[in-house]
Amino acid sequence: MIFLLFIIEVYSLQFQSFVHIIPHPDKVAKGGEDAYYANENLLAVADGVGGWNNQGVDPSKYSRTLCENVKEYSHLDNPKEIMQVASELTNHILGSSTLVLMKLIDNILKVANIGDCGYTIIRNQEILHQSQEQQHSFNFPFQLGPQGDSAQLAQEFEHTLQINDIVVVGSDGLYDNLDENQILKIINEYGVSQSSAQLLAKTSFQYSLDKSYSSPFAKRAQKSRIRFMGGKSDDITVIVARVINSNEL
């Protein structure tokens, strides 16, 4: 009688991530109005809505507190539930924020996204998925806040990931100034590193100041029959993450 012994290696996937932030030129002193949180299985970027400045409200207070509450409840598995709880705990603060939040559980990436932050998934040097912004109307994104939208309106997605997949997450300061092909080109050349996160942010920043650049934001404006040319000056937050076997660390 022959006995066969099968050994199955069990492993979990996690993120190895790098972050770079460039504030809007007028908001350098306070570090901008974006916020983020990242750990080995959760990535989140929030963008405080700048229109609150016109009412004497600092938008960074809402977005930063929101991400602090995301961190507090990052142990939950459902990203929309994390978003809901975090926003409810933040809604004592006047302001609002967009938010993209994703949780990697085994090999499944669960995403909740409200507003115009975004993410890109790259596999084998090709775009696997590119998120789309969620807008009430042009340049008026869905947003969490005491006077904003419910987290229940967030878009939800699931993606099956593999080792060495790459996830880029960013505020609209990235996606208003670089399209997915420009992002792909930088990632394919520089890989997943602090340098690639920095270069994505710096390239976005350079284009944001170029008044003759046909930016993704300008193209969307034209589709809405709004005259606009150039990049979109804004805070820029970029997270670049590689999916790895947890045993690698």
TrEMBL record:
GO terms for molecular function: metal ion binding; protein serine/threonine phosphatase activity. Keywords: Hydrolase, Magnesium, Manganese, Metal-binding, Protein phosphatase. Its cofactor is Mg(2+); Mn(2+). Its EC number is 3.1.3.16. Pfam families: SpoIIE (PF07228). Residues 15-243 form the PPM-type phosphatase domain. It catalyses: O-phospho-L-seryl-[protein] + H2O = L-seryl-[protein] + phosphate; O-phospho-L-threonyl-[protein] + H2O = L-threonyl-[protein] + phosphate. It comes from the Eukaryota. InterPro entries: PPM-type_phosphatase-like_dom (IPR001932), PPTC7 (IPR039123). Transmembrane segments: none annotated. Belongs to the PP2C family. This is Protein phosphatase. The lineage of its organism: Eukaryota, Sar, Alveolata, Ciliophora, Intramacronucleata.
